[in-house]
Amino acid sequence: MEETASAKTATVNGIELYFETWGRGEPLLLLHGMGGCAQDWRYAGRELLAREYQLIAVDARGHGHSTNLGGTLTHRQCALDVRALLDQLGIRRCRAIGMSMGGNTLLHVATQEPERLEAMVIVSATPYFPEQARAIMRTISPDDRPAEEWRAMRERHVHGDAQIRALFEAQRDLAGSVDDVSFTPPQLARVTARTLVVHGDRDPLYPVELGVELYRSIPHAALWVVPNAGHGPVFLEAAEPFARTALAFLRE
User: Fold this and answer.
1) What's the pLDDT tens digit per position in 11-22?
2) Which end of the chain is less congested by CB atoms within 10 angstroms, N or C?
């Protein structure tokens, strides 16, 4: 039977940041994607990861149980929140896994404060938003989402429909963002963490070439291109191979 989570909340940067801990051992930070929550990791090998690490799975600001009264939702701000949380927990240096928005957040942490991360796995991250991603983002609106999507979002985000509308609108607003996710090779060269770049070769948002660009720009990087996989190449049936691969890399 899977171990029960320890759920906690920390006050950082004017918000209440919710996180769950699982397992024992050295800390392993888990950051979900845009519109997701900490519970997503149950579909990405959480049980296997918790056998070797104490998982710290965070609800990003405005997601899940976390608040976002000021409305600011950027990857750069999420990185500041993560760093403040680690400070409160007394964690000076750790390993981390980030999915999409979580991976982009880790790129901010790793370039803002390189010594903070010993190793990281970034899944479906990107150095910048290509036009094909911006075109998809522009189509996102809370007013035309199907009922089943609203039901799924209500199960994950507990602060009501206004919170969910804000998340849909934040995804749409990314289409016009030019400086939040804009990592140049010189910036990425500052990363000191051993980095595993994981990318699906059928990602509709960020083509695999962008994963290769991250791999080539980040020192001490490895690349795993997942065949026939889209933007979420680590969930459900892919969870066990992902968790075992991530653990083997983090263990080195």
Assistant:
1) 999 999 999 999
2) N
**Contact by Cβ (8 Å): 231, 200:** yes
**Residue 58: C-alpha distances to residues 47, 202, 223 (Å):** 16, 27, 25
Q: What is the pLDDT of residues 89-127, one digit of tens each?
A: 999 999 999 999 999 999 999 999 999 999 999 999 999
Which helix (DSSP H) or strand (DSSP E) does residue 199 occupy?
A: strand 194-200
The 8-class DSSP code of residue 220 comes to: T
d(CA 209, CA 221): 15
> What single-letter amino acid sits at 56?
I
Please tell me the distance from the alpha carbon of residue 241 to that of residue 90, in angstroms, as a whole number. Answer: 32
d(CA 245, CA 27): 18
Give yes or no for a contact between 109 and 193, defined as CB atoms under 8 angstroms apart. Answer: no
* Terminal C-alpha separation, the chain: 29
Task: Give the domain ranges of the chain.
Answer: 6-129+182-251
Could you tell me the fold of the domain covering 6-129+182-251?
Answer: Rossmann fold (3.40.50)
Structure tokens at 146: 């199907």
